[in-house]
């Protein structure tokens, strides 16, 4: 890499870092304002701040494509405003060479984002979810929202939360008898013992007899269910809280059980194709800097980048969710906006060059 390549790469990298910090700061502030209404004696300000901070790594990985677009517009736009790009072009440096130099730091941060998505964000997101669940239980609110429903053998099970050590929290087990409900077992937590055996803690069982309802409480009870701890843990998490390997693992399990795993497959491909999406948006930014935004102000470039980024993100969500709704391979739905940006960027760069 020559000095001029390093200079272009550093300009884009610094602009990317500034944009990423601003986006994370805005996200932090808006989330704090939105969630402050949940604060009470149990779910304190400190708990809320912990939850928001734990979710920042996942937000960073999610913002990398848009930050790459705006960062490239800002970095190269600054060089264009000082006529440095004009001097480079006059010296015989082709646009593809400038684009190659700009893509290198973006590729680096995209790969770093993949590492965050695989190793850091899932654990942090799962800790944030557990804090929310624990504080909700301490305040006496037990809500059948935010967790997961499962069909386990002949029963229907609701799990409020789970950790990666195989412990479950806030369990309700509904056991039917034909068209009637036989009993409901509620437990504050459960841990796996061996094989298909689980131990339920702080158990309350409600039995629906033909002529009366009986209720009894126990400190512990055994629960025999055929689902493994790993799959129970994965089922209790939202798709965006899982790593690529966990998403792939749970997809395989759902296919074996002949269940729909389209949401997990969609999240897998959104995360896996994020580096390519970042590079596609860099190409769009490159064509814009040498085209309609050549003489634009910095504010104009940032505004344009935000509009393009929002359009891209909305298209990604739209085509991805449409593919799930019409039972189409999610990889194709996710790829459509990325391919459109990639082709548009290549065509426009070639025209400018």
UniProtKB/TrEMBL annotation:
Please name the GO terms of the biological process aspect recorded for this protein, alphabetically.
lipopolysaccharide transport; transmembrane transport
Family annotation (InterPro entries): LptG, LptG/LptF_permease
Q: What is its main location?
A: membrane
**Membrane topology according to the record:** Multi-pass membrane protein
**Gene Ontology, cellular component aspect:** ATP-binding cassette (ABC) transporter complex
Alphabetically sorted, this entry's keywords are: Cell membrane, Membrane, Transmembrane, Transmembrane helix
Cell cycle: is it a keyword of this entry?
Answer: no
Entry's localization field: Cell membrane
Please give the start and end residues of each transmembrane region.
12-33, 63-83, 95-116, 268-290, 302-319, 331-349
Keyword Transmembrane part of the UniProt annotation? yes
What job does this protein perform?
A: Part of the ABC transporter complex LptBFG involved in the translocation of lipopolysaccharide (LPS) from the inner membrane to the outer membrane.
**PANTHER family per record:** LIPOPOLYSACCHARIDE EXPORT SYSTEM PERMEASE PROTEIN LPTG (PTHR33529:SF2), SLR0882 PROTEIN-RELATED (PTHR33529)
Homology family:
Belongs to the LptF/LptG family.
Provide the assembly information. Answer: Component of the lipopolysaccharide transport and assembly complex. The LptBFG transporter is composed of two ATP-binding proteins (LptB) and two transmembrane proteins (LptF and LptG).
* NCBIfam families recorded: LptG_lptG
Query: What protein name applies here?
Result: Lipopolysaccharide export system permease protein
